[in-house]
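Good day; I would like, with your permission, to put a structural problem before you. What I wish to show you is a protein chain and, alongside it, a tokenised description of its three-dimensional fold. Thank you for your consideration; the sequence and its tokens are set out here:
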Amino acid sequence: MSHKVALVTGAAAGIGAAICRRLARDGIAVGVLDINLDDASKVAAGIVAEGGKAIALQASVADRAQVSAAVGKLRAEFGPVTIVVNNAGITGWVPFEEITDEAWDRMMEINLKGTFIVTQVVLPDMKAAKWGRVVNISSSSAQSGTATMAHYSASKGGVISLTRTLALELGPLGITVNNIPPASIAGTVMFEATKDKMPMPIEAIKQMLPVRRLGEPEDIANACAWLVSEDTGYVTGQTIGVNGGRVIS
């Protein structure tokens, strides 16, 4: 995989950072993209220190001009981008009746529109190579629904639907598109910011899961590494549940 170049969004910490580190260990050059350039730079520097290839990139995924500029830098550094992991996202716990138009629009802008923009910007490189891998990080909340997360669940449900549609449209071009819906992943910025707002204690959540533990960022990274590999050319349009059994299909 040494000739492959990947763009990972929301990559300055948590799941995104773990994905970057795992892909780099597999010999893939990585663009570590985040709105927070300082932390993205730390992730990239750590990868380089371990012998991998990485560059830090700054952009809001909802801003097409910023994404295009970042992808241009990645392409100039390492070559055409044929792997994209759409991980950037925001969350929120708000009763449905209290969700404002602004909060709804912001959730859709980052979680759903951002996935659309990033994938569309990178697509020409994949088409030219006649090979590509798109992995979208959705959420188990989109599968089961979660009270007080209507806007978040809806945005991630859109990501799952977008995944299925793109798999149909891009499959003939040699591009696979899949999604991973995590459950509760410990240590992420999103988890730490919202754990006190969860409807039950963390220990109770653990006991509800068949594996009796929360997920780790590396759990998602491991699945992502498989989905972007050469071994998954016959896997597309799939929801690969890495959720400790919260959702069983």
About this structure: The radius of gyration is 17 Å. The longest strand covers residues 29-34. Residues 241 and 249 are 8 Å apart (CA to CA). The domain at 5-232 is CATH 3.40.50.720 (Rossmann fold).
